[in-house]
Each structure stands twice: as structure tokens, then as C-alpha cells.
User: Which sequence fits this backbone?
């Protein structure tokens, strides 16, 4: 499975941006998908997760502002980001795993990673 992330860019604080992840060469339908991010100078952190059948979870720092969705027919997963803040600035990565739900917060359980897309939120 090859994952390709897209949609990053520069946005002003309070604005919205979507980042998408497309699978190339295989089917994502049986995988749980997550978005991670790595802010400048900080560690990677989990942002949002969605299972193949739509169960989802959003990290507390972005809850109420970010939404994760997927389209299994198109092999895509999208992170919808609203009310962006400068602290949301990061490289955003999509990742895929077949691990059970209780392990989806463990980055090492993800077998596939996208190349990352940079989101910059200006103040």
C-alpha cells in the first residue's frame, strides 16, 4: 500500500483547510486510518483515527475543530480542519493499520505512512 497525502498549504488563523490521503496500488477498505502531525521542533502526535466501518476518534487539542472521514469506494481519507490555530502548524501524515482498535494510538502499529503534507497557519 502506498499512501499519498495532499492538500496542505498556508492559511490564516481561523481559516479552514482539508488534507487528503489516497491509497495507490491497494485497497484501504480493511485498514484503520489515522492522521498524525509533527509540529516544528516537537514530537509526532496522533490527531484523528477512523476505522474501516466509520468508528472515529479525535484528539483533544483539535476536538470540535477537526473531522476525519473516509470514502472506501475512492480509497481516500480526509481530514477537515476548521478554526485553525497557529499551533496547528505541522507536517501532517496519514497512516494505515490493521491493528485492533485498542492499539490504534500506537504509531509503531502502522505499517503504511504517507509522505506528509505541510500545513502552516499564520497568526
Assistant:
Amino acid at each position: 500500500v502506498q499512501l499519498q497525502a495532499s492538500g496542505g498549504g498556508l492559511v490564516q488563523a481561523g481559516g479552514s483547510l482539508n488534507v487528503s490521503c489516497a491509497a495507490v496500488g491497494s485497497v484501504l477498505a480493511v485498514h484503520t486510518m489515522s492522521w498524525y502531525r509533527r509540529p516544528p521542533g516537537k514530537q509526532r502526535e496522533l490527531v484523528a483515527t477512523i476505522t474501516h466501518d466509520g468508528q472515529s476518534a479525535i484528539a483533544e487539542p483539535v476536538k470540535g475543530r477537526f473531522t476525519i472521514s473516509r470514502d472506501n469506494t475512492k480509497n481516500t481519507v480526509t481530514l477537515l480542519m476548521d478554526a485553525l490555530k497557529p499551533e496547528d502548524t505541522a507536517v501532517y501524515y496519514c497512516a494505515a493499520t490493521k491493528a485492533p482498535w485498542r492499539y490504534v494510538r500506537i504509531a509503531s502499529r502502522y505499517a503504511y505512512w504517507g509522505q506528509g503534507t505541510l500545513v502552516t497557519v499564520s497568526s
